Write the structure tokens for this entry.
Amino acid sequence: MNTDQLDYSAEVRRRFEGAPRHGRVFAAPSERRRGAAGNISHGVRVEFEARVRQGKVLECRFRAYGCPHVIAAASWVAEHAEGRRTVELDWVDPHALARLLDAPAHKLGSLLVVEDAYRACMTGATEA
């Protein structure tokens, strides 16, 4: 994707150079949690999968369907989840993500889906 011609922040463009980091799911089901939110028919779907041991995130991956802001936000969350305790949930803040990514106000609803998917992953409240 050529983001040079689009009006996206440096953080969004950086996450699209090559491929978004942490953008895959695990193959082995050992010690993992999954969570998802959103609906493709509504234009946004985010899934997180984390390998967890003793309440700590060892690895986190995502799969996202949506605009570049959603994909960049999911990438950022997956990257920054690693090393955190699974009970730490308040650090994922859609308003802070919007500021970080310089996302327009109308994208906040989509960034809430990222937060919901991460919370579902950490709490085991997976949405179908």
